[in-house]
Predict the structure.
Amino acid sequence: MEKIKKIGVLTSGGDSPGMNAAIRAVVRAGAYHNIEVFGIYQGYKGMIENNIKLLSPRDVSNVLHRGGTFLKTARSEEFKTQEGRKIAYENLRKNEIDAVVIIGGDGSFKGANQFSKEFAIPVIGIPGTIDNDMYGTDYCIGYDTALNTVVEAVDKIRDTAGAHDRLFFVEVMGRDSGFLALRSGIASGAEAVLIPEKETIIDDLKKYLANGYNKKKSSGIIIVAEGDDAGGAYKIADLVKKDFTNYDIRVTVLGHIQRGGSPSAFDRNIASQMGINAVQGLVDGKSNVMVGLINRNIVYTPLEQSAKHNKRVNPTLLSTIDILNSY
Ligand code: ADP
């Protein structure tokens, strides 16, 4: 096996806070191993357009605490085609890049898996998504920061909900996954949480509001994951409103504030650890794997698996909300 001399690093798909911390760790771990690290700007799009620049360890000063990604991210339809991936590979060869670190979510890893199967180039993934639904890791970069952003926002909404006796439906991100909704619901004392992993039965929600909630409480918060099977917060609020004309029902969609902001200490820590171990993995000859943290240990999972199997919410957690509101 040839010694790796040059690594490319890119961020792809949806951004998440802490991606900068991961890029920094890859660049500095590269320097530690005497490997040059090249920043590939705008994800796979930049790989196809040869938007690639050498990053020195000093180029990643002052980024650890910043949200977003200074390498920028993008979605690339061209990379989904074999011709597009071939151009991307030729650009890597032009820059003499021996291996690539991809920071992103499951879509990006599907692309990475396909790419490394077609061309003999080692790739390693670092999970970055506020959805936290990647198989092969307990935590994805950005999830903890987003969770804290949601909890802070819901705390504020609760103040005004209480002042006006209002029932709020708060929509949080999560097209296919309810981690953010469920964990923010527990942390902010929500009265109910609706997630894609569990069928939402509107009649049950109405019964809950009529029987329990109505008698005990004058205000409340219901967290809705955007991908809930019954629809988003506006749709569900409308369905409920019809039968509860006496309720003052409001809807807040938190939107993109969930993706931004300075990463939490937790996200900076896991991003640093994963970045270092992505480079270590490549040095050790690993390829086509995602680096993750399971029970606080670094674990490498084949991209084939992490890109296919979405991690599921622990079902026992679903009862937490019910128990805490059953008095
Ligand atoms: P995320 O990584 O956040 O899940 P996307 O699903 O948007 O984001 O994927 C990011 C990019 O990864 C896409 O724009 C595309 O370039 C690439 N990609 C996704 N799926 C595939 C695939 N099946 N084959 C090749 N490339 C893919």
Q: What stands out?
A: The longest strand covers residues 166-172. The radius of gyration is 22 Å. The chain has two domains: 6-142+263-308, 143-259. The mean pLDDT is 95.
